[in-house]
């Protein structure tokens, strides 16, 4: 898992060392920098895919990434520490990005391996526009490559009429669930055919929060066998036709979340941006259970604004984002320090009372 991330000069993050655990629920008020932290993973994913330049342009240019812009900050430094636990840091990815012509280039990209307490470094790139570890099949780069290839930020927010989740997808687009759920029908069909036990568990979980839902009806389009659409059957209506357009926004999002967290081989690190959006409290409770269960095998990083979701986790699972003197700071909660409060209040209520921070400063 990712044991720690050191970040300097990135957006609102001036200089922070953020330790991570199997479960990391990131909370804080609007505008403090939660999204900036989550976007680090999107940045690294685009760098990995040799798409750094286009990504920086799409997001507003170099000034949008450098702490208070290029007049104040000339370089972004990001250092990922990987390991099985906090005391076993085995690999690192060290990236420095610098500004040029309102874009960012890779000033240096290094990896490191810890052997008997000593870090051994290897440089892979200097002063290049694009570079990827994707094709490296040997040495330190190979081990870091296996960590990076699954970096993906999932956000199932778009449930409008033109939502990618509601359209058709190629039936063979089933290697992994995409970040926006656009191939959820194809991926579920793959699970139905190749991993039926996991598929049935997903169906039962959806039924537990949507009692009108009976089961999925997934098969290739009869007129185009390369395409598939998310179709389902409603309880008591065996002859009626229903697809994703007939689902509520919350149910459609929950289908994607359940599929992501209950698949047989989930990504090693799952990053989800505000998964509680549009969910009923009962669905949020079920989501919390899915997160805890998945964290037994993979690492979960969630950005959330839900008091209901926070209530289902331990204080040590919660990472507070706040602003102090024009920069984002991160603090992990400590259960011992909160014992007196937790005797009378839930963790969510303690957050609402602004005891732990993560609320607007004028509350």
UniProtKB/TrEMBL annotation:
Family annotation (Pfam families): AAA_21
SUPFAM superfamilies: P-loop containing nucleoside triphosphate hydrolases (SSF52540)
Origin: domain of life: Bacteria
Protein name (Swiss-Prot/TrEMBL): DUF2813 domain-containing protein
A single MF term (Gene Ontology): ATP hydrolysis activity
InterPro entries with a match to the protein in the record: ATPase_AAA_core (IPR003959), P-loop_NTPase (IPR027417), RecF-like (IPR014555)
One biological process term in Gene Ontology: double-strand break repair
Domain ATPase AAA-type core residues, every copy: 23-311
């Amino acid at each position: 898992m990712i044991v720690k991330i050191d970040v300097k000069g990135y957006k609102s993050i001036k200089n922070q060392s953020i330790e991570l655990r199997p479960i990391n629920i990131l909370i804080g008020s609007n505008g403090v920098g939660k999204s900036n932290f989550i976007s680090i993973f999107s940045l690294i994913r685009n760098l990995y895919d040799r798409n750094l330049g286009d990504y920086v342009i799409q997001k507003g240019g170099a000034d949008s990434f450098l702490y208070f812009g290029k007049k104040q900050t000339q370089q972004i430094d990001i250092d990922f520490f990987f390991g099985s636990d906090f005391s076993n840091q085995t690999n690192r990815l060290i990236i420095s990005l610098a500004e040029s012509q309102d874009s960012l280039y890779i000033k240096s990209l290094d990896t490191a391996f810890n052997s008997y307490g000593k870090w051994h470094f290897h440089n892979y790139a200097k002063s290049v526009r694009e570079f990827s570890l994707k094709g490296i099949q040997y040495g330190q780069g190979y081990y870091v490559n296996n960590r990076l290839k699954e970096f993906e930020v999932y956000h199932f927010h778009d449930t409008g009429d033109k939502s990618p989740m509601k359209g058709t997808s190629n039936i063979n687009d089933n290697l992994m669930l995409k970040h926006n759920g656009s191939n959820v029908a194809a991926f579920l069909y793959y699970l139905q055919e190749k991993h039926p036990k996991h598929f049935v568990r997903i169906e039962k979980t959806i039924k537990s929060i949507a009692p009108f839902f009976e089961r999925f009806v997934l098969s290739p389009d009869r007129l185009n066998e390369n395409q598939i659409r998310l179709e389902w059957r409603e309880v008591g209506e065996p002859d009626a036709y229903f697809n994703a357009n007939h689902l509520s926004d919350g149910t459609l999002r929950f289908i994607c979340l359940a599929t992501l967290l209950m698949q047989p081989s989930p990504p090693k690190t799952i990053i989800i941006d505000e998964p509680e959006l549009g969910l009923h409290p009962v669905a949020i409770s079920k989501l919390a259970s899915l997160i805890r269960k998945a964290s037994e095998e993979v690492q979960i990083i969630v950005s959330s604004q839900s008091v209901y979701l926070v209530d289902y986790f331990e204080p040590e699972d919660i990472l507070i984002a706040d602003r102090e003197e024009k920069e984002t700071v991160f603090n992990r909660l400590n259960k011992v320090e909160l014992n007196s409060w937790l005797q009378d209040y839930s963790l969510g209520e303690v957050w609402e009372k602004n005891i732990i921070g993560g609320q607007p400063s004028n509350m």
